[in-house]
Amino acid sequence: MSPSLKVSIKPPSSSTTPLSQSAQGLIFVIAMWLISRIVIIIAMQVLAPLYPGIPAEHPLPVPLSFTPGFVPKPSWDLFTHWDAAWYEQIVTQGYDYADDGEMHNIAFFPLFPILVRSVMALGIPFVIAGFLVNNLALLGAMILLYRWADERHGVNAARWATAVMAWCPFSLFGTVVYTEGLFLLLSTAALRAFEKQQYVRAGLWGALTTATRVTGVALIPTFFLVAWRERRPVTAYVAGLAVGLGLLAYMVYCAIHVGDPLAFVHVQKAWGTASGVNWKGWLDTFLNMFQLRFGAIKEMTKVVMVFGGVYLFWHLRSQLSRVAVIYGFCSLAIIINSGAIMSVNRYVYGIAPASLAFGLLLSRYPRWGYAIMGFFGVVLVGFTVRFSWWRFIA
What we know:
Elements: H1 16-50, H2 83-93, H3 111-120, H4 126-153, H5 155-167, H6 180-195, H7 199-210, H8 219-229, H9 234-243, H10 245-258, H11 263-266, H12 279-288, H13 295-315, H14 322-337, H15 344-349, H16 352-362, H17 366-388
């Protein structure tokens, strides 16, 4: 008799499962990013020109490149309204400043213009370069947020957190030529690296964060408090100190070129910013919530995002990581005490753990989550159309 045939069947390697999950997560993130960006582009380039709006004659605050009687037409220029014009001035003409109470571009931090200028060196116009930098950075931020949420809370929470970042109405500023995408990418990278005790990376990403926007300084007390509370090594404190290098470098630049290391702070008075809590501004914002107009939604988002954010971080303090909670509180404290009311909703959107926290909450109540995502989408379209018509959003 012939020897019996033995067939050995090996079970599939378990190492393929994480790769499959990772690929599925990446596909989900790209889909959320791409679909939401397409919605913004259609709203801006198709719906806004068809919208029967009344041209703005003198919007407040007065934008740099505003033309009275403007009516939007499909073009790349629609991506460069409001602050984008300041970045274009920095890239093409450099920084300027005078202590005259007027607006000057020294208020805007340098990393985003540097990156845009680098892309322009390839022969790409400013608006396309700025569009690419901001949108690709937002995609990177969403990928990091998904991985961070997945590591701590699972795939379901990761998907909801990513959806929040993609569909929040203020994700508009991750597509137009602003710094939201870059700030979210760098701050998320810094927070995730510090949580994983990768202190060199945390310090590097943190320094780049403070070179992008002054609110990045919230990383410094975050790193120090977490290091103290968790008894981390000295290198954790060094990472916290390294975060300030981006801000310090810009202060040195300002001291050398305009003679005032805090010029970016002093010029803020032209935008109506004052130190301390602006109680009157918050009272007016609260009262404006109840006006029967679309703009009331914008005022409502300020109250809900700021004070709702405080509650959300407190409510989920035992579920979120200590790094996420402390950074959330520190960022909100800076925003509230800055005295600036106009753009607080956009600044809260720039707090990556806020998307993480809200996503974690919605993952427990998916029916509410779907309804909220639908509402977000409608408001996102409305905000995009208004932005295209030179209506101030945030």
